[in-house]
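@here heads up, posting the sequence + SMILES for the 2-acetamido-2-deoxy-beta-D-glucopyranose run so it's all in one place. Ping me if the SMILES looks off, I pulled it from an old spreadsheet.
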Amino acid sequence: MVWTTPSRVLGVMLGCIALLPAPATAAHHHHLHQRQHHHHGYSVGPPMWQTRPQAGETTATATVAASVIASASAVSSAQPAASSSASTISSLKAKVIIPFYIYPDPGKWTPLLNLITTFPDVHFTVIINPSSGPGTSTLPDAAFLSAVPTLTQHSNVLAIGYVPTQKGTRALADVERDINTYANWPTAANNASFAVHGIFLDEAPNAYSAELVSYYSTLASLIRSKTGLGPENYVVTNPGIPPDQAYLPLADSTVVFESPYTSFQDAIKADTFRAINGTSHSTLASMVYGIPDGVHLPTLLAQVGQISEQIFLGNTSSYMAWDPYMDSVVPALVEMV
Ligand SMILES: *[C@@H]1O[C@H](CO)[C@@H](O)[C@H](O)[C@H]1NC(C)=O
Ligand SMILES: *[C@@H]1O[C@H](CO)[C@@H](O)[C@H](O)[C@H]1NC(C)=O
Ligand SMILES: *[C@@H]1O[C@H](CO)[C@@H](O)[C@H](O)[C@H]1NC(C)=O
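bot reply: prediction finished. Complex C-alpha cells:
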C-alpha cells in the first residue's frame, strides 16, 4: 500500500497496479491526496483486486499487519510451517506485521507500545515510515529520534524501514540511497537503539522480468550487507498479490495479499493463492483491511493463516492511525497458536 508524503506526492496504488496491464499502471501511479499537516499528509489508496476507480482522496488508513506464525495447529495450513529466516523472529509463534506510518506525536505510538508490552510472546514486525521512506535528511526529526528507541527496546519487536520502489521503475540509485540512509541511522545518531533492522520494499512487481529480478536481488543484497540494518537484515517485498515464483526467494517475507476484506474473499473464491501453494508458509505475509463488523475473527484468522504466516488485519483503511482491530487480533492470535 502506498501513501503520500507532505513533501512529495507519492500516492501510488501498488496493489491495484499489479493487476493492470503495464501501460495502464503509470496513470495510476500518482494520486494526489490531501494532507492534513506536515508529517501527517499521506493517504492509502485502495489496493489491488479492485477494478473500480480509485478514490483518490481516501484518507489514509491503518493496516496492521499481523503475522501469524503458521505453526498454529488450530489453523489448518495448506503448507507446512517453516522456521523464519530471522533467528530472533523464529522463537515466537505468533507474529504480526504492522504498517505503522504514524508520526510520533505525543501519545500516538502508545496503543502499539501497549500491545507490544501486553503480549511479549507475540512478535511484532513494525514498518516505520518517516517520509515515504527515510526522508532526505541523514536523520529524521527529534520526535522520531526519541520514539524509535521506544520500539526497538522491546525484544519482541523488529522495526523495519519503508522504502518505495514503484514496481521497479524507481531509479535503483534512489532506492539504494534510502536503504543506506536507514542503515546509517545508528551511526549518525550515535545510538544503537536508533535503528531499523530490515527494509520493507513497497510496490514490488508480480510479473516476471529478468531485469526486475535483478533489480530486487541487488536491493536485497544491499540490505543484507549493511551492518546498520543488522543483525536481522530482514527483507520484505510487497507485490500485494502472489508474484512470480522467481521473486519469492529474494525476500525473507513476501506480502502476497494487501487489499480489503471483500477482495480477500473474492481471491479465495478465485483460488488466487494456489499460485503460492508449496511456498514456505513462514516466508509469506498477508494484509487484509476494511474488515466489516460481524466477521468471525477466528475464521478469518484461519483463512489468512492458511495463506501466510504473517498477517495484518484491520477494520479501517489507513496506516496513518492506529487500527483498533489489532487490539482484538493479537489476543485472538495468541489463542490460536
Ligand atoms: C539512545 O537513545 C535512547 C532513547 O532516546 C536513550 O535512552 C539512550 O540513553 C541513548 N543512548 C546513548 C548512548 O545515547
Ligand atoms: C496445495 O497443494 C496440495 C498438494 O499439492 C493440495 O493438497 C492442496 O489442496 C493445495 N492447496 C491449495 C489451496 O491449492
Ligand atoms: C473497528 O473495531 C473497533 C474495535 O472493535 C471498533 O471500535 C471500531 O468502531 C471499528 N471501526 C470500524 C471502522 O469498523
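MO: The chain has ten helices and nine strands.
MO: One more: The chain has one domain: 94-335.
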